[in-house]
Amino acid sequence: MTDTPARPAAPGPSALPPGVLVLAGTPIGDVDDAPPRLAAELAGADVIAAEDTRRLRRLTQALGVTPKGRVVSYFEGNESARTPELVDALLGGARVLLVTDAGMPSVSDPGYRLVAAAVEKDVRVTAVPGPSAVLTALALSGLPVDRFCFEGFLPRKAGERLTRLREVAEERRTLVYFEAPHRLDDTLAAMAEVFGADRRAAVCRELTKTYEEVRRGPLADLAEWAAEGVRGEITVVVTGAPVRGPEEFGPEELVRRVRVREEAGERRKEAITAVAAEAGVPKRQVFDAVVSAKHSEG
């Protein structure tokens, strides 16, 4: 009786070429904005990691796609725990598709941890570019867009929110924020307090959806409008701080800038030095303005 040759062992994960992590943009409103490649990736991925599996199901139905791969949830609450599992799948040769509820993964949405972990393991990461609330709001705002910075969501607590705003009070680039509708009026009021009531801004609501609306105007006016109640998904765009000449820095403005920096955690000496450099005036002039303001306040 001859021995039957043993079957070769199946290659383990380490013997397989790494898979690919695909970050896919999804519509921020109108499903017709879905990029053509999205349907193909949804149909062909080995694993789909979705922020909300129910919303993913609605999206695939709208696109007429039946995913062949395994669908798992990947949201803020389980992102840390699920990332190693997805990295193992990638190292095993899987094509993993990451989608969030709307827009691009990692932009104020889950994704950063998985991308960082995949890069660390030399796994290829690519993207299906798609709609972005940040860029859409910028384009519609009517404000300067040559330089901008995205600040995401502000803290919910009023004190922390003011501190964060004070940190960028003198930022000259256009600022972009996400905000919940029930906090919009408080946020705009805080912005008017820190940035100035006349600073120009735009509130973009329900972008690409049926009731899309863009409100433009000074922060104080927008805060008054929002106090009546606003619904929908919100993106706020605020123009950057104006460039001032030395003649525009009166004592009140110098004192205000020092206080902004102090409230953000700077010591008074460093704040005075920094404000003097910004204003192009001697440090003694800023110091005298601060001392005078302190005496006048009693």
Can you offer a commentary on this structure?
- The protein is built from eleven helices and ten strands.
- The protein has 298 residues and is α/β, with parallel strands linked by helices.
- Helix 2 links the parallel strand 2 (47-50) and strand 3 (70-73).
- The N and C termini lie far apart (107 Å).
- The model is unreliable at 1-15 (pLDDT under 50).
What is the beta-strand fraction? 15-25%
Q: Main sheet: which strands, in order across? A: 3-2-4-1-5
Largest sheet: 5 strands, parallel
Span from first to last CA? Answer: 107 Å
Query: What general outline do the C-alpha atoms trace?
Result: elongated
Number of strands: 10
The whole-number mean of residue pLDDT values reads 90
> Regions with pLDDT < 50 over 5+ consecutive residues?
1-15
Radius of gyration: 25 Å
| Alpha plus pi helix count | 11
Query: What string gives the helices and strands in order?
Result: EHEHEHEHEHEHEHEEHEHHH
Given helix and strand content, the structural type is alpha/beta
Assembly type of the chains comes to single chain
Relative helix content: 40-55%
Short description:
It is elongated and about 70 Å long.
Topology:
Blueprint: E1 20-24, H1 36-44, E2 47-50, H2 53-63, E3 70-73, H3 79-91, E4 95-99, H4 112-120, E5 124-128, H5 133-141, E6 148-153, H6 158-167, E7 174-179, H7 184-195, E8 200-205, E9 213-218, H8 219-226, E10 234-238, H9 251-263, H10 268-279, H11 283-296
Parallel strand pairs: 1-4, 1-5, 2-3, 2-4, 6-7
Antiparallel strand pairs: 7-10, 8-9, 8-10
Helix pairs in contact: 3-4, 6-7, 7-8, 9-10, 9-11, 10-11
